[in-house]
Write a structure and sequence with these properties.
This protein is of the alpha+beta class. It has helices spanning 16-23, 54-64, 88-115, and strands at residues 3-8, 29-36, 43-51, 68-69, 72-73, 75-78.
């Protein structure tokens, strides 16, 4: 398995094939993926390239970091693992609030009559 690179500051017109074509000059490209916006179908400005060896990946960083890609200076670096997402906590809180309201209504109907 090779080494995965992060490529930033890509033009909106970039696609998988154009990205692969640029990185071919640094060695064997195992895969090239431009991240696209689902709504617009345009490049989100970044992507990932996997080179076949670590040496080729390092060559790609040295040769292509700040290189011109359709008028934009690409940013090429070693890809970092994604950080764990922490945004789910808010949804859980809202779910608990909604569940509490539903449970309260059921409790009122069942036990409330006996107390009054």
């Amino acid at each position: 398995m090779g080494k995965k690179l992060y490529v930033g500051n890509l033009p909106y017109s970039a696609n998988d094939d154009s990205l692969k074509g640029i990185f071919d000059q640094a060695g064997t490209v195992e895969s090239a993926k431009v991240i696209m916006d689902r709504e617009t179908g345009r490049c989100k400005g970044f992507g990932f390239v996997e080179m076949s060896t670590e040496d080729e990946a390092n060559d790609a960083i040295n040769k292509l970091n700040n290189a011109d890609f359709e008028g934009r200076a690409m940013k090429v670096s070693e890809a970092k693992p994604m950080a764990p997402r922490t945004g789910g906590g808010g949804g859980g809180g809202r779910g608990g609030y909604g569940g509490g309201r539903g449970g309260g209504g059921g409790g009122f109907g069942g036990g409330g009559g006996g107390r009054y």
